[in-house]
Structures are given as C-alpha cells and as structure tokens.
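Reader question, answered in our methods column.
A reader sent in the components of a multi-part assembly and asked whether the whole thing could be modeled at once rather than chain by chain. We filled in our standard form and ran it. Here is what they sent:
COMPLEX SIZE: two components
ENTRIES:
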Amino acid sequence: MPDETPKQAKRGGLGGLLDNFKEVMYGMAAHDMSRYAIRTRASMEHLFILITMGDLIGVPILPPYYSLRLLPYVVPNIATWKRRMLREKDVSDAMF
Amino acid sequence: MSLKEVFEKNPNRRYIMFGGKGGLGKTTFSAATAYWLASQGKKVLVFSVDPQASLTDIFQKDIFGKGAVPIMQNLWAQEIDADSHIKAYQNEIRKKILDMYGFDAVPEEIEDYIQAASAEPAMEESAIFDAVVDIVVKGDYDYYIYDLVPLGHALYYLSMAKVYDEWINKITKLREEMREYETMVSKIKRQKETDEDKILTELQYIKGRINASSSILTDKEKTAFFFVVVPEEMIILDTQKAAELFAKFDVPIAGYVVNRVLPPELRTQTVPAYLQNRLQMQSAYIDKIHTTLGNQVLGMVPEMERDVTGLAMIEKLAKIMYG
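And here is the structure of the entire assembly that came back:
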C-alpha cells in the first residue's frame, strides 16, 4: 500500500507470522475448550427455552405472562430447540 | 385511634388497601376513603384489581377500561380491562417479532403459543398485576387506593409477586451463567466484545417491575392495609387467619374497620324478635372483636339505611368514617 510506512509493513510481516503462531497455539490449546463452552452455552439456551416456553412442546411451565415478553428473542432458536428436545436418544449420544 | 387520626399521623402513606372477605364493603370503604381524601385536597386515584370490579356501580359511572376517569375534583377512578390489556400486550409481542425478523406474518407455531398463553387461567390476574405496576409507578397521585379482590384472591395476588420474583431470579441466574460462558469464549478467541444479551436486559426489566409492585405491598411507611370485618363469627375467624397469612407476606396491616353494625339506638326501641336476636348476636361479636383486636379496631360503621351507591351516599359514609 502506498501510504503504508516500512515499519508497519515489517510489523505486518512479523504480525502475520505471530498470528499464524497464535492460530496454531489456539487450535492446540484452546479450540476444544471454546468448543466445549459453546456447546454448554447452547445446552443452557435450550434449557432456558424449556423453562420459559415449555408449553411449546406441551410442558406446562409457570404463568406465561412474562414469558411472552421473551418470546421474540427465542424465535430463531425454537426449531433447533424442538428438534433437540424431541429427538430420541441412543447410546451413541454418550460417545459423541 | 380513629381512621382519621391514622391518616393524619401517617402523612407519608400513599397506598391504601381495603381487604376482606367478599361482600363486606371493601369497594364501599375504598370509595368513601377516596372521597374523603379528595375533599381534603389530596389528588386521589381509586382503582380496582378485581376482574369483577364494582367501582362503576358505586360511582354510577361507566369507567370500565377507560383509564383514570374523573369523578369529582381531585378524585379519579379506574377499572382495569384485563382483556384489552392482554390483547394489546399480545399485539405488542407480535409486532416485535415482525419488526425483529422482517416477517410478513407471525409463524404459525409462535402464533399458536401466543394464543394459548392468553387462555392460561392466571393470565387475567397477571395482566391486572402488570397494569397496576404501570398505574403506581407513574406517581401522578397523592394517594392510590386499591379496591382489592376478596381475601383468597388477594393472597394469590400477593403471592404472585413472590412467585414471579423467584422465577425471575432463577432464570436470570441461568442467563447470567450463559453470559459467563459467552464471555469466556470471546476471551479465548480474543474477541473484543460480546453482543448484549437482550433476554437478560428484558429479564432485568421484568424484575424491576415485579420489585416495584412487591416493594409497595410491603412498604411499612407508604402502605396501609385495612381489614374490613363484620360482627359475625365466621368472618372474624377467617379474617384472623387471613391476617396471619398476610403478615407472612410482610403486608403492613394498619388496622380493622367493622362494617354493618346495627345502630345501637335500636336497642331502646321496640323491635321484632328477629332484630332483637341480631342485636344480641352482634353485641357479643363486637365484644369479641374488641377483646381480640383491641386498639387495632379503627372504626365502627353502621348498617346504612340503603346501599351505598352514588356520590351522595358515598359522602354520607365518608362523614361517618372520618367525622
């Protein structure tokens, strides 16, 4: 780039190397951890929808007056949630 | 102490409630108290939390679902129309869904849920509960007089705040834990910001509303709860039981007002045996009320010569109650 100073270009080159190194380190050390955290977060999201919107799959849970206020925010997750709640479980679930 | 003194000695009180079994005179006392306070120059709103409200009947003015309707100078009355409140609430939710996702129509299963939720038995009470929060948080009046539902229902109303509070606390905690996981992931991935959790914000808003309502119901300085009793055994026993239950919910009980007392001058007159018996019965129960409740009895209101409806009768009753 014409307005890029030589110092920046140098940092970019070194930075690129550093970024690659970081990516490798992240993959080795933290990727599994973050994947696990995301999965736990998703399970909790499903638990949350069950607690507040249980009625959607026929579980009558608590007066839903204030649940309705939360409904708009969970609309995109309802399909996956229902699939997960209603699917049959088998032994392979414990393995993967 | 008289009712008048109770009001004069507690100028910070803003929320006045009359409770008791059905048909004992809660609405009548609420209307008379509102009338008296308004005639003292205070700005007063009397409103009903009963789905079968009778303020319309007592003021002889159709006020149902019309917001705060002026009755006389300084006095407004309101009856909440739970049905239209629920409909407006449902529409608000539908609109939010359409706006957020750019849908042309609300998806069928979501619409079904919205419909089913409104058929839920507690929906009406919850809607009234929510509408009351709107009324009282505005703070437009010097006094808010709650014309309460009969005892059993009133307990349900009080417990609703507690149930909702616990429900909200639990799911807020879950939501906060989810938030921790989100933050952890973005830290690992070295992302600078995580999106705001709108559900958490919404939960905090709901929590604020519930707290506003329950803090009023239990505020010893600003709230006074009066029990209406009549001199009859079952009523006295039930009221005592209810008072214990109300105390468990930390409701500040300010005293008892005895209604439908037969005028004592009848005793000196020749009256039929039926009335003699009623007089003797009442006299025994009035003694019992004095022994059991002592100085918590703030007033004895006589049985009126006719039912209390219309401002003239309300004024008459207010004069008897507050001198």
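What stands out: The helical segments of chain A are 6-53, 67-74, 78-86, 92-95. Residues 1-10 of chain A have pLDDT under 50 and may be disordered.
Send us your own complexes using the same form.
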